[in-house]
Specification:
123 residues, single chain, mainly alpha
Amino acid sequence: MRPREVRRDPGLQPERTLLSWQRALILLAVVGLVYLRGPLDPASGVVPEVAPALRAAVMAFTLLLGTGLGLHLWLRWRRTEYGLREPGTGRAPLSVARPWAMVLLSAGVLVLTLVVVATVLLP
């Protein structure tokens, strides 16, 4: 006799997970745009002016990171039949994104944080 296969009902979990990833990627792009803009009051010496090339590089980094992760999420979402079934097993996926996506997002945010702190502390 074969034991009954327990089916996991994902409910709305895949949609909520996808929406949270989308919010994180949108915020990453917004932070990159704000950094590209520069200080709110250029005349004040509180925040040092950053070279435009560095600003453009940070913006390009955030856009590439966001685009790459967004593409991964979209392809994975479509591959898992909108978060319902893992192609190999037929079961519900444990998460919408692969674990490396979270590591990459965390590393990207860490790099962005280090660049922002370095530009403020080092004139």
